[in-house]
C-alpha cells in the first residue's frame, strides 16, 4: 500500500490568484471548444437533414455554442453578474 500524498503547506494553504485565474481561463477555453464543437455538429446535421445543405445553420449553431460558453465564462470570471450573488468586502 502507498501512503496518501501529504500537503506540507497545511490544510489552510491558499492557492495563488494567478493559478485561480489560469484555471478558470483554461476551463473557459475548454468549454468554448466543446460547446462550439457541439453547435457545429448540430448545425451540420440540421443543414444536411432539414435545410438542403445550406451554410447558415452551421454558422448559427456554432455561434450559439460559442455564445453559451462566453456566458458561462462571464459568470465564472465576474461574480457580480449572477443574480442573487452577494459579494462581501473582506474584513480588514
UniProtKB/TrEMBL annotation:
One Pfam family recorded for the sequence: DUF543
Keywords: Membrane, Mitochondrion, Mitochondrion inner membrane, Transmembrane, Transmembrane helix
GO CC terms in record: MICOS complex
InterPro entries named among the record's database cross-references: Mic10 (IPR007512)
Annotated transmembrane regions: 32-51
Subcellular localization(s) per the UniProt record: Mitochondrion inner membrane
Membrane topology classification: Single-pass membrane protein
DNA repair listed as a keyword: no
Keyword Hydrolase: no
Similarity comment text for this entry: Belongs to the MICOS complex subunit Mic10 family.
Protein name: MICOS complex subunit MIC10
Species of the source: Apiotrichum porosum
